[in-house]
Amino acid sequence: MKYQKKKSMVAPKISKPFKAVKKAQVKSRSKLNGVLNKLPSSIIQDDEPEFPRGGRNLLSMKEEANARAEAEAEFEKDQRLKSRLKNTLKKRKMKKVRGEGFGAGEDEWGSLFDAGIRGKLARLANRITWKNISPGMKLWGVIIELNPKDVVISLPGGLRGFVHAEDASDMYADGQDMVPGLLPKCFDVGQLVACVVLQCEDDRREERERKRILLSLRLSVLYKGLSLEAVQDGMVLTAQVKSVEDHGYILHFGVPSFRGFLPRINNGGVQICRGQLLQCVVKSIDTVRAVVYTDFCPDLMSSYVCKDLKGISIDLLVPGMMVDAQVHSQLDNGIMLSFLTYFTGTVDVFHLQNPFPTENWKNDYTLHKKVNARILFVDPSTRAVGLTMNPYLVQYKTPPMHVETGEIYDNSHVLRIDGKYGLLLNIPSSPEHTPAYVHQSDVADEEVNLLKKFKVGDLARLRVLGIRNLEGLAIGTLKISAFGGDIFTHSDIKPGMLVKAKVIAVEPFGALVQLASSIKALCPLRHMSEFARVKPSKKFQIGAELLFRVLGCKSKRITVTHKRNLVKSKLEVLASYADAVEGLVTHGWITKVEKHGCYVKFYNGVTGFAPRSELGLEPGIETNTVYHVEQVVRCRVTSSVPGSRKISVSFYCPLKG
Fold first, then answer.
1. 389 closest CA partner among 363, 352, 364, 362
2. For the chain, first and last CA: distance in Å?
3. Do 152 and 143 form a contact (C-beta atoms < 8 A)?
4. Among candidates 526, 463, 527, 464, which has minimal Cα distance to 501?
5. DSSP string, 517-585
6. Does domain 226-296 sit in CATH 2.40.50.140?
7. What percent of the chain stands above pLDDT 90?
8. What GO biological process terms are annotated to this protein in UniProt (predicted)?
9. For the chain, what is the radius of gyration of the CA atoms?
10. pTM higher than 0.85, yes or no?
11. Is 408-483 assigned to CATH 3.20.20.70?
């Protein structure tokens, strides 16, 4: 019996000679060693098993499988990074980039690690674009829109990211403590925040190559791996108010190993609520209780510079952190700075100290010049760091914008001509002037040579296409065709107006249509035809141009209808309760059928009710046998109380009108 138990643990005997088996083992082990030699040393140490006497492995089969899976995942990540850098270098060699002026059409990293190198010095400043943004990047941004379910953030380079409610805070990540309307209470439009890229999804609704960027504001993601040993006096950390106590505030840093405390006397006189994000300075550390005591003052934060802390790693570099730096070298489209002893980062031309840099901007940045800058972004995978010297951002303030999308300015001055890339102009806005950039593709309707067509000091008629909130920069166009047309911005859209739009996507819930270059709308499934449908109409093919009528425009969310009787209607549009005067004849559509009457909806969310006595039904006839939901009806306003938002209508109405 003892022999039987031993036999189950020891490998069975083999009839072949022992030497042959030993040779085969040595051969297979040599192959394995050849593979292991190619792996990083950290992986080899983790994967190399040790066999004690008796031949039994220290790890269980499950533990060994998990270890090998982790090693393979790390190895694949390393290989992907090498492949990414290799492909980028290959593409740039094929394009034969020569660096004609700033930009030179670059849309990738002009980084320190690939083709953006001239000898041992960088040639181009790092820039965040649609093509190179990836999960794990840490970015600085400004909140431009707050919704009940998400936060919209303006990112460097004019990109836009979205934060879902569950990714806005560790306290509400599981959804258990989620309170309706929490986001508007904890965040403010114009607030500067540090965020981490979670995912970049291809946006099928866009004709151009674009991505939908999903972000996280959770401190557990931003400070992943942070320990109390790494925290030092004088550090600036982002904290979230976990609870409000009598003498101060309990702070959360995203890690369970320690917490923070902010005394009420150090709150800078600012009203603070639970869930709010704060920028705090570490004053002292209680290692026994694992508590970090902090100070918070908005005026202090605008001038506080991060100290040159001992042993700081790139993982502790957080966007928004201000550092003392000096000019290391000049680049084609910016400068390189050195900071915190052994870190280097780049500043592109849109983040210099002067928001209106002329053609001689390099004269302002001599070698070894000392400047203040804030970290704009950090890419841990390539160790690339972007910085900003924008005077407003350095003071921890959002740059003000004195222009709006769609506005036209006749006397904009040309400040700089960037070869084949674009123009920098000065918009004479009030109360302060605003910098604007016009890409070469938006200079004219036909292809032109910028250097021949424009000179510094020329006046141009410019229309604002968009705004880069973080940079305080307007994006404009000089095209003559851009100054015509009825629709250019969301403010030009009015409920009830007829619009011609192109179908760009068809989904089970409806069709997405494009009204203008940057304006899109949704045609719900129920409004794709006169009757209720189970799936989209075949008329809605991608690329088809159709006529619609605007149902409503709320918070830049536009809905349209393609119901034939609504689109071709010649009657007046009812788009507000104030417009519902007695005797008005208009078209609406039924949203609910009851025994005692029908509910009718009009434009911009206006709703009315038609009692059974006003439906024109014979006695004994059921309402639902004559009328159905989504049916377009002609009705007349019989009474209206705008203050109570009540309208009564009748289906008895004159034939004319």
1. 352
2. 104
3. yes
4. 527
5. TTEEEEEEGGGSSSS--SS--TT--TT-EEEEEEEEEETTEEEEE--HHHHT--SPP--SGGG--TT-E
6. yes
7. 42
8. rRNA processing
9. 32
10. no
11. no
Q: What's the mean per-residue pLDDT of the chain?
A: 80
CATH number of the domain at 577-650, out of 2.40.50.140, 1.20.1250.20, 3.40.630.10, 3.40.250.10? 2.40.50.140
Quick check: 153 and 393 in contact, CB under 8 A?
Answer: no
Cα–Cα distances in angstroms (integers) from residue 193 to residues 155, 387, 414, 419, in the given order: 10, 15, 33, 35
Domain 138-220 fold = OB fold (Dihydrolipoamide Acetyltransferase, E2P) (2.40.50)
Q: Name the CATH superfamily housing domain 490-567.
A: Nucleic acid-binding proteins (2.40.50.140)
Cα 380-295-218 angle, rounded to 5 deg = 35
Q: 471 pLDDT exceeds 90? A: yes
Neighbours of 281 (CB within 10 A): 18
Instruction: Give the pair of three-digit tokens for residue 394.
Output: 């350095």
Does the domain spanning 99-124+305-399 belong to CATH 2.40.50.140?
Answer: yes
Structure token digits, residue 215? 């972000």
Distance between CA atoms of residues 489 and 487, nearest Å: 6
Residue type (1 letter), 270:
V
pLDDT of res. 274? 85
Amino acid 530 reads E
Is the pLDDT reported for residue 647 higher than 80?
yes
